[in-house]
Amino acid sequence: MYSARERLAQKKWIEELERAADELELSDDIRSTAVDLFLSDVPETDRSKRAVVASSLYAAALIGSDGRTQGAVADAVDVSRLSIQSRWKDQLEAAGLDAPGW
């Protein structure tokens, strides 16, 4: 889990996540799950944070049964689709969830 201090320290990236979620028209539940996933897996370098924002949004959309494509999420966050593809399953498993086998 993460602390309130971590949430405050990552405010810039949470705002970026919210901006992309607005563009994708994601529900409040999916946004909340995405923030939780992001804060549970914040990389140390800013360079990697945008990719984790994207994979958090994609994984949260899957959890929330919202069929967003990796490409749509990647475009909203301005990362490559590969950035999402290489992270989302590990993120789900780190959160204690089973990633689909497809």
Automatic annotation (TrEMBL):
Looking at the record, the residues that make up the Transcription factor TFIIB cyclin-like domain are: 16-93
Q: Entry's InterPro entries?
A: Cyclin-like_sf, TFIIB_cyclin
Single GO molecular function: TBP-class protein binding
Protein name, UniProt field:
Transcription factor TFIIB cyclin-related protein
What is the organism of origin for this protein? Answer: Halovivax asiaticus JCM 14624
Q: What is this organism's lineage?
A: Archaea, Methanobacteriati, Methanobacteriota, Stenosarchaea group, Halobacteria
